[in-house]
Design a protein that fits this description.
The protein is of the alpha+beta class and 195 residues long. The protein is 29% helix and 28% strand. The protein contains 6 helices and 10 strands. It has helices spanning 2-19, 94-99, 106-111, 142-150, 173-181, 186-193; strands at residues 25-31, 34-40, 47-53, 59-62, 65-69, 76-81, 90-91, 101-104, 118-123, 130-136. The strands form 2 sheets. The protein has a 6-stranded antiparallel beta sheet, sandwiched between helices. The longest helix has 18 residues, at 2-19. It starts with a helix and ends with a helix.
Length: 195
């Protein structure tokens, strides 16, 4: 039951990433070709942080690794770092099939720190051509994005609260007179003072 609940939460975050932004999702961080969005689960009030690779919407990041979305049917995953020989083919795991996402876990992900490029081939049956090939060729910003995610994706820009906006008659008559004398347009005075 716990695995199913975790699967649903992760799937919701990944599907939300692939399908489009949810109304309560906000981009809170940018670095290189990565952005981080903050989503508050309406059922648990838990903050969910997701990194997005701006060059490919199928690639996202959580605090435990990279997730690469695929449209079902994948049987294997193969990784290649920089120009090194490709790693051994591995079967997709049960969770990867359930999420329709190849998961580049912490151990595989940590290897990326020593490299500039990661190529991932997600394949069908071993005798069939790859279903998808992803080249995450620019990793700049990935570590800053991961650090932001692990910090709970804090909001760096606070929206202006309604109480901070000008209220009707926020400017005194004397101030408006001085503004007009300084040749400030009536439209600008109205915008600033609420008149």
């Amino acid at each position: 039951m716990k695995i199913t609940a975790i699967t649903v939460i992760i799937a919701a975050a990944i599907v939300g990433t692939a399908v489009g932004a949810a109304p309560n999702r906000a981009t809170v961080f940018r670095a290189g070709k990565w952005t981080v969005s903050r989503f508050i689960d309406e059922m648990s009030d838990k903050v969910i942080c997701t990194g997005h690779y701006t060059s490919n919407s199928k690639v996202s990041m959580k605090d435990d690794g990279l997730y690469i979305y695929f449209a079902g049917g994948a049987e294997s995953v193969r990784l290649r770092y920089d120009d090194e020989p490709q790693r051994a083919l591995r079967d997709t795991r049960h969770l990867e099939k359930a999420l329709s996402s190849a998961i580049i876990d912490l151990m595989e992900f940590t290897d990326l720190r020593r490299h500039d490029r990661l190529r991932v081939v997600i394949g069908g049956r071993r005798d069939v051509s790859p279903i998808i090939e992803i080249d995450v060729s620019e990793t700049s910003g990935i570590w800053a994005a991961l650090e932001n995610i692990r910090a709970g994706c804090p909001v760096t820009e606070q929206p202006v609260s309604p109480s901070a906006l000008p209220q009707p008659d926020a400017c005194s008559d004397g101030m408006v007179t001085r503004m007009r004398a300084a040749k400030i347009s009536s439209a600008q005075i109205a915008k600033v003072c609420g008149r």
